[in-house]
Amino acid sequence: MTTQDSIILPKAVDKLRDEFPILHQEVNGHPLVYLDNAATSQKPLSVVESITNYYLGYNANIHRGVHHLANLATEAFEKTRKKLAAFLNTPDQREIIFTSGTTDSINLVAQAWGRMNVHSGDEILVSMLEHHSNIVPWQMLAQEKGAVVRVIPITPKGEWDLTDLNQLVNAKTKIIAVNHVSNALGTINPIEILIAEAKKVGAKVLIDGAQSVVHFEVDVKALDCDFYCFSAHKLYGPTGVGVLYGKAEVLEAMAPYRGGGEMIHTVSFSGTTYNEIPHKFEAGTPNIEGIIAFGAAIDFATSLDKDFVQSHEHELLRYATEKLSSIEGLKIYGESENKVSVISFLVDGIHPYDLGTLLDHQGIAVRTGHHCTQPLMEHFGIPGTVRASFAVYNTIEEIDMLYNALLKAISMLK
Amino acid sequence: MATIEERQQEIISEFSMFDDWMQKYEYIIELGKDLPLLEEEKKSDDLLIKGCQSRVWLHADYANDGTIHFKADSDAIITKGLVSLVIRVLDGMPAKEIAQSDLHFVNDIGLSSHLSPTRSNGLASMIKQMKIYGLAKM
């Protein structure tokens, strides 16, 4: 970090923190240090206000109304689709499907695409780094179809071990479903390699982007993946909404998997015809206020200076890694050179629950446990880790507070 | 012998001497370290009470006089300390009293957050299991 940066950065972060009123509070008599951003990010004022504005100004059901409020609501709702298309760099808004989150998006593909295209003896490829949300839907599909779920192993550093890639991706592989960034370790995975490999055998690729979009730009056209999904709430947006990007020709060939209003063209008892994409996959009244606020979250995310986000998060990760590594008996899980600002760790002989409890009493919010990645924890032979995950609004001072609180907790537990 | 209520009052009065959270937790951690708990071979899966965050093993012995003796353990030291307090209150008590007990002391000493479902540390499930053991012999 240059001298100039070190003067500019704290000011920029201070200004940014003003957008997040929740950060300015005390917890257990200490200033709140929120380091659980990989679980959910905090929300800026603009996102919170967009929900209030909707309910105070133009609440109405969307798409079918002819009245003024319905038009306003539909316009705001569809504007988010446009923003998301631009955010992911697709020119075709029909490729943006609203879901309730990453989990819902994955289930949609596993059911609507998977049940049509995966058959007995076929293979589905996931990795050891997956969240349960990107394991269980595929296991359910595999069980129903008599297909096999195969797993990309990892190296001790927490990176994919692609030594046997030729064997893992083969003629039987129908879909590869992997995360872009590991939620438990922070590893940024080389998804480009898998996408290229999948093309050789005609397999589809789904990328779970729940942990990536808040840290760096994603271009689905450059990646050329078939599906990409993420949740709003890890990107400054509200809970309960997310997105599934899918290539138009792939989505068009898929049958809908939930029936109801909105997704139909005509309904009669002699037969029903379905709506076009994206509405074919959006049965029922959606989470309108959530999707409007999702748009405000995209606006907020894109308003941040990319270089600032990258350099600040990089500095937070570098400093935290240096400080935490200096603690005797502390082991960091996930030591890839390519990581987002996440540190998973354990201290010799101390259970993560104990550390998490004593950190909470000092105002530090971290996550403890298996992070919904039980196979990964089992692989490492540990019950779980303590995970500190940093956002652009975190500060170097907060890492010092984490460090000091950790020393105190360890001295109490040893 | 002290009743369940008397044992709870004893704990509440012990905890009233602590000025801050650190003293309180240091004491719980000591309890966790001191308690002679289950031997490794007894930590079998059928005694395991699963929590998402930490695990608890609970072993119950029915005595001929209708009382129940408990032994328990946990992989997390704070959970273990809390477990030892619950055992101190319920151990050796008549089955019926265990089944009908109201363990208000956890709340009174300011540790009720450890019983909340979001903690999922196995403690709440352990208390429930102890009461089920009591109910079975009522």
Give the integer mean of the pLDDT values of chain B. 88
Name the overall outline of chain A: globular
Work out the count of structural domains of chain B: 1
The share of residues in helices of chain A is: 40-55%
Number of helices of chain A: 14
Main beta sheet of chain B, described? Answer: 4 strands, antiparallel
Instruction: Tally the beta strands of chain B.
Output: 4
User: What is the rounded Rg of chain A?
Assistant: 22 Å
- Unreliably modeled segments of chain B: none
CATH superfamily of the largest domain in chain A: Type I PLP-dependent aspartate aminotransferase-like (Major domain)
Q: What is the CATH architecture term of chain B?
A: Alpha-Beta Complex
Question: How far apart are the first and last residues' alpha carbons of chain A, in Å?
Answer: 36 Å
> Roughly how many Å is the radius of gyration of chain B?
14 Å
Q: Regarding quaternary structure, how should these chains be classified?
A: heterodimer
Which CATH class of the largest domain in chain A applies here?
A: Alpha Beta
Give the domain tally of chain A. Answer: 2
Mean pLDDT of chain A: 95
Strands side by side in the biggest sheet of chain A: 4-10-9-8-7-5-6
Describe the structure.
The complex is a heterodimer of chains A (414) and B (138). Chain A has 414 residues and is α/β, with parallel strands linked by helices. Chain A has helices at residues 3-17, 45-58, 68-88, 102-117, 136-145, 165-168, 191-201, 220-223, 248-252, 288-303, 306-325, 352-360, 374-380, 396-413; strands at residues 26-27, 30-31, 33-34, 96-99, 123-127, 148-152, 173-179, 204-208, 227-231, 242-246, 264-266, 273-274, 330-333, 342-347, 364-365, 367-369, 385-389. Chain A contains 14 helices and 17 strands. In chain A, a hairpin with an 8-residue loop joins strand 13 and strand 14. Chain B has a four-stranded antiparallel beta sheet with strand order 1-2-3-4. In chain B, a hairpin with a 4-residue loop joins strand 2 (56-62) and strand 3. In chain B, helix 1 crosses helix 3 (77-90) and helix 2 (21-34) crosses helix 3. The mean pLDDT of chain B is 88. The A-B interface holds A 28, 350-354, 356-358, 361, 368-370, 383-384, 412-413 and B 21-22, 25-26, 29, 52-55, 75-79, 114, 121.
